[in-house]
Amino acid sequence: MNNELIQNFLNLVENLKDFDVKIKVGETPNIKEFKVHSIILSAKSDYFKTAFSSRWARREDGFIIFDKPNISPPVFEILINYIYTGTFSNNNEVNPIDIFIAADEIGLAEISQQIENHMRNKVAGYFRKGKFLKALELNEEIFENIPHSIEDQKRASNWDFSNYRFGSEEINELSKKEEKD
Hints:
Distance between the termini: 49 Å
CATH architecture of the largest domain: 2-Layer Sandwich
CATH class of the largest domain: Alpha Beta
Structural class: alpha+beta
Helix content: 55-70%
Number of helices: 9
Number of strands: 4
Low-confidence stretches: none
CATH topology of the largest domain: Potassium Channel Kv1.1, Chain A
Order of helices and strands: HEEHHEEHHHHHH
Strand order of the largest sheet: 2-1-4-3
């Protein structure tokens, strides 16, 4: 999308004109209401297309009312900005796993894939820097929260550490982790 078109769509979110959906996200005390356009969300997500259909949608005073308590306001704001502008930006303010889970739930596969790739690259970067514990912890978080294939499991179980030189700091770090488990 060109910058002018992106700005026009972003203005729709910020100016709250002609919205027809009110989505409450989060849990008490962190609840935020987003006023959005069903046509835009439905065009980007089959999840919303179904949720806003006459069969499922709850209406009050001419608005579709929708609750998503399992998604935090900061995560939902990132997803709404992506839906309206086609650009994804996190700035490391929100846990990528939380964004992945929410994006996966509402059918935004592009974001899910970007986050998964980013996290796997981060694991590889930790390995290259010799930060093995960080790599293993992040990889464990990925396996716990992101659907993965048998190939991913095999690849992780076949990591070869023989070319790495462990210093006392890394060994102490790994030993402390073992003791906790």
